[in-house]
Amino acid sequence: MAFKAQAIEVNGAPIGMKRGGSGPPLLYLHGTDGLTEWPEFLDLLALEYDVIAPDLPGFGSSPIPEWIDDVSDAAYFYLEVIEKLGLTDVRIVGHSLGAWIGMEMAIRSAERLHSLVIIAAAGIHVKGVPKVDIYMIDPEEQARLAYADPTLGEAAAKRVTASKYQESAILNRIASARFGWSPRLYNPRLERWLHRIKMPTLIVWGDADLIIPPPYAHAFQRAIPGSHLEVIEHAGHMPHIEQCAKVHSLVQKHLA
Known about the structure:
256 residues; alpha/beta; Rossmann fold; eight-stranded mixed beta sheet
């Protein structure tokens, strides 16, 4: 699928994005690893949807303005992006940090939103269930831990250390720390407001996720009314990459 790069300006801040496909609008919000590698998952979604994949401020082609300090700011920012693009009935699909932002958007305004898919989401803390502190390990180790299949983990680690990706990996780490440094990748106030998410919500999780373990998936399911949980076998923190066909089928069924 051929995706076209474009840029718009929202509230004085430029934001870069890639867009491709046709159909109802779908906003893909990436995780802490950014979109250095373009996933097959988005190619498949673009067969049915107008896929819009922006770089979160501070990642890729989007500089970060001084007035964006946390995920709450990012949520309002993306709601303005949707308004700027004139979109309605938007399907949001988010991974990790992006899933967290998607939920923060949904509890603020669902006026232009259709449905929500959260994949291996950050955003809350489950007592007694520690997450991997991604800021205390190097990007190479984080890449290894992201996959259930050690072969895929080693391949991901090698990509991170390749010279053409090293700079983006460092910049992504800096940018993600702005949103998730303290407290670590969660908002203490988010869980109390998740009941405001009334739209159809699919929760996707890898059964071998070491970075954000599966008990978090069940906590989200309990907190979001009517949400549906799918736990993917033989998948880690990147189920939409590691088990692409399976996850795409589930997401497509949910979005339809």
